[in-house]
Amino acid sequence: MMYRIVLACLLFVSIVACSEPTGPTERQTLDTPSKTIGPITVAAPDGVEIAATVYSRGDLNVLLLHGWMCDQTYWAAQAPALSSHFGVVTVDLAGHGLSGTNRQDWTIASLAADVAALVSELELEKVVVVGHSMGGRVALEVARLLPGTVIGVMGVDTLHDADEELDPEEVAGLLAGFEADFGATCDGFVRSMFGDDAPKEMVSEVTLDMCSGPADIGTALIRDYAAYDLAAALRAAGVPVRVINADKWPTNVSGNRQYADFDAVILEGYGHFLMQEAPAELNAALSETVKSIGTGD
């Protein structure tokens, strides 16, 4: 049984991403005098409050989306570095961090609609949406919603294989585990994602942080993730899609190119949590790839 749970976890590798929260805790609304820089809050289409932080604004803007059961502060090693070259905005997806939880239906599409509303409120142009893990799927949906505004999508250890078929029995078993004991199932789920050389303290901190989140929201999003049609989303995005992935799991570059203008950079020797496990290498790859998208190379 444990083997099947671990296998199911590997099939869902691109759902998760997190680190220790370190960011701002007080937020402003867009009608405050300092609305262009700093923490802000905007209303999603259904009224849920969405927290974000504007680090900088530029001709080319990078929107950073975190993964499942995490929040925007998990980009702490990336946002300041990128903001010296681009406009940078980080977001707490609904149900995460400082954003609201007063919603009944939790889907990747609804998270994307929230992000699209934020981009519109900020009047951002020429946006590259970067999503780690589940955030990669959200990024694809944002591109579909904002044609012309979003010029590229980037994934961080995500979007591995649009042709992968999940075993229905393994999916059902994983969901049953989350529903029966979210904490215990989440613990094994998260720990299986790290690289072999990840510090034990990092593994423990990330696992505890993720698995203390709202179980009902986490379970609902995993259920929607399992039903998500990645091939269709790649087709519909309409922009170049680039990923920076670890080599812990294979990335099907040739397969994904059936559906989109797709390419990958592979960082060797790491696990799923590249933001924490390889911040310097990730920052360099992010900056280079964003520049390439911006110039159309």
Please give a structural write-up.
This protein has 297 residues and is of the alpha/beta class. It has one domain (2-295): Rossmann fold (3-Layer(aba) Sandwich), CATH 3.40.50. It has helices at residues 2-11, 79-83, 108-122, 134-145, 168-180, 182-191, 200-211, 215-227, 230-237, 253-256, 274-277, 279-295, and strands at 28-29, 38-43, 49-56, 61-65, 87-91, 127-132, 150-156, 241-246, 262-267. It has a 9-stranded mixed beta sheet with strand order 1-2-3-5-4-6-7-8-9, with helices on both faces. Helix 4 packs across helix 9, helix 5 crosses helix 6 (182-191) and helix 6 (182-191) runs antiparallel to helix 7. It is globular, with a radius of gyration of 18 Å. The termini are far apart. 48% of the residues are buried.
Give a topology summary.
Blueprint: H1 2-11, E1 28-29, E2 38-43, E3 49-56, E4 61-65, H2 79-83, E5 87-91, H3 108-122, E6 127-132, H4 134-145, E7 150-156, H5 168-180, H6 182-191, H7 200-211, H8 215-227, H9 230-237, E8 241-246, H10 253-256, E9 262-267, H11 274-277, H12 279-295
Parallel strand pairs: 1-2, 4-5, 4-6, 6-7, 7-8, 8-9
Antiparallel strand pairs: 2-3, 3-5
